[in-house]
Structures are given as C-alpha cells and as structure tokens.
Amino acid sequence: MSLLCAETPRTRRPIVMIGAGGIVCDAHLPAYRKAGFEVAAIYDKDLARAKSTAEKFGIANTPASLDEAASTAAPNAVFDIATPASAHLEILEQLPDERGVLLQKPMGEDLAAARSIRDLCRRKKLTAAVNFQLRYAPDVRAARKMIAEGKIGKLHDMEIRVTVFTPWHLWTFLEAISRVEILYHSVHYIDLIRSFLGDPLDIYAKTMRHPKMGKLASTRSNLILNYGDMLRANITANHGHQFGLRHQESYVKWEGTEGAIKTRMGLLMDYPKGVPDEFEYCILEAGKPPEWTALDIEGTWFPDAFIGPMSDLMCFLDGVIDMLPTSVEDAYKTMAVVEAAYESSASGGTPVLYD
Ligand SMILES: NC(=O)c1ccc[n+]([C@@H]2O[C@H](COP(=O)([O-])OP(=O)(O)OC[C@H]3O[C@@H](n4cnc5c(N)ncnc54)[C@H](O)[C@@H]3O)[C@@H](O)[C@H]2O)c1
User: Which ligand 1 atom sits nearest the alpha carbon of residue 133?
Assistant: First the structure.
C-alpha cells in the first residue's frame, strides 16, 4: 500500500484557482497557506466573489475571464478547479494543453461526464488529478501507515458510518440535479475504500430521499462494496439526523486479524464548524482483554487533507513521484462505482416471496 504525500515538491509552482466558493475559502486556500504554496490568481464567474476572496487571502490577481486566467498563467502553473461538477468539462476545454490540473470532486455528474473529462484530459495531455483529499486526511494517513506496518494484521473489514445533519441548503446548485448523496458525498468514502482495498467486484446499494428535504434528490445511502466472502466494506450515510449531537456519529473503522482502528471525522458533526476528531486503536495481546488507546493526530480533514492532492500533483509534475494517486484515470474508477451504486439502487433488491 503506497503511503500518500510522502514527498515534497521540488519546484515552486504558482496555483491558478478557478472558483472562489465555500470550499475554496474553508479548505483549499487555508491548506495552501499552511503548506506555503503560492496562489497567483483566482477567477470566479462571480467576479465580486473572486475579489473578496483574493483580498481575504492576499491573492494578487483576479482575472476578468477564464480566458484571461488561462492565458496569463505561468507555463509551470497548476490550475485548481473548484466549481460545481457541471462546469468542469467546459472549464477544462479552455485551459492550455499539457498543464497540471487539480479538479474538485465529483468528476462530472455521472459516468458519461467522467468519461468525457478523462478523454479530454488525454487529448489535451493534461496531467490531471481529482481532489479526493479524504485519502490524505491526517488520521487516515496515520491509519494507512499502521496498516502498512502490519499493526492490525490482515485487514478484512472497513466501515464508514455517518449519522449527521448536513446543511445541504448551503449548496443551492444541488437542488437542480438528480444525484446528490452518493455523487457529492459518499463518493469520498467509495474512493477511500478503493484506496485501501482496491476495486470492488460489484456493489449493492440503496439511496433514499428525506421527507424534509423536498428540493433534493436522495440524501441517505446504504452501500455494500463487494470484495468477496472474506472482506466486508460498508458505507452508511444519513444526513438527515436533526436531533442534536447526542447520537450523531461520523467514523471510519478498520478491522484486521490482530487489531482495529477507529477514527471520528469530527468535521461532519456540526458542519462546517465540526467537533474534535478522535483516533483510537486496539491491538490484541495474548492473555489480555482488548484495550483501546487514543492517539493525538496533528491536523484534520479541513484544511490539512487539502495539502495532499495538490502536493502530490506538484511532486508528480516534478518527477519526484512516479504515480499520481488520484489521477483522472484512477478517479474514473471511483466514478464507475458511483454509477453502479445508482444503478443498483434503481434496479431494486431481491424480490421476497411472501406466499
Ligand atoms: N471535501 C470536499 O472535497 C468538498 C467539500 C465541499 C465542496 N466540494 C466541491 O467543490 C465544488 C464547489 O463547492 P463549493 O462548496 O465551493 O460551492 P459554492 O457554491 O460555494 O461555490 C461554487 C463557486 O463556483 C463558481 N462557479 C460556478 N461555475 C463557474 C464557472 N463556470 N467558472 C468559474 N466559476 C464558477 C460559483 O460562482 C461559486 O462561487 C463542488 O464541485 C463540490 O463538490 C468538495
């Protein structure tokens, strides 16, 4: 299992931001500031938004058009696209060929769009990655290291469970689309599971709407990624738990033959304010009752995880690493699982014969 973001870029590459919305302010720009990356320009079709974000983060240039952002970018610049997925293809088309690009998830609104994005990146020879940053969250990296070192033995169970109240109203663009939860949220978990267990054989899924979220497509999902009869991988996501923090939960758990790791993704509880993360592990010892140990992990999903995909993209462009972990080629496979999940949900379960 490769340890992500183990290297640092060799050269300084200016970043050109496309999009100046919530996630850019909450995570991209704070992460790049923390990492010491230079953001040279920021463009948003809402120019006032670009200007106010530029002011807040000390970004010198706010191009008046995408064309200007693309044509004035330094030859070694990387483009960081953080717009709704429906805009990705059109933006990529206008970028110069043979550049580095990081693209926010999801990679288009369905698999057909993901294919168009992948094909465009191939044709334009873009070195492109998708921002599946959960793989790089500090607690996930700590778990990945422990698992790679064999601390919990053979990994045979991975579970992600989210029972939270997500303020979907913050993303009005979601109201117009037919896929919400799996495409925009659980896609992170599907990608995370793939990064640990590889590609599932197939998927069983059911995704449901919420009676109080009338403007949105489904916001709750149960997903079973099938890895055969010895490996369990589950995602349960309920974003409609409006009953306070007491019974909210948000965790990733890995179980192995010799131990287990559980980490709380505090960010999602009371999003975007969040509650603290918690990282615990248990290693079995002969003759002793199982005991859980807490570990202090520095940093958290927002913003720290956002350093990883950008850093690895820069490292790959510099030739420091020879594999781009969340390349569009790899991300396409995550999108293929998303597509299969929606198909599974639509096709229904096994009929029950009650007579
Ligand atoms: N953890 C994560 O990875 C994470 C979290 C939240 C959002 N996101 C992703 O980030 C993207 C943006 O989400 P957000 O929360 O910032 O949404 P937002 O609505 O706050 O911001 C989107 C911004 O994109 C701009 N925009 C739209 N089309 C554009 C175009 N063609 N050219 C330039 N600018 C354009 C809008 O004017 C707006 O400022 C989405 O794709 C979403 O899936 C990722």
Answer: 3
pLDDT single digits (tens) 77-107: 999 999 999 999 999 999 999 999 999 999 9
Kindly state the percentage of the chain with pLDDT values over 70: 99
Atom of ligand 1 at shortest range from CA of 21: 21
Q: What gap in Å lies between CA 319 and CA 322, rounded to an integer?
A: 6
Q: Tell me, what's the pLDDT at 309? A: 97
Q: What is the pTM of this model?
A: 0.97
Could you give all domains of the chain from N- to C-terminal order, each with its CATH number? 15-133+305-324 (3.40.50.720), 138-300 (3.30.360.10)
User: Best substitution site from 80, 101, 104, 130 to test ligand 1's pocket, by max atoms within 8 Å of Cβ?
Assistant: 104
Give, using CA atoms, the residue closest to atom 32 of ligand 1: 45
Distance 244 CA to ligand 1 centre (A): 28
Report the distance separating Cα 193 and Cα 76, nearest Å: 33
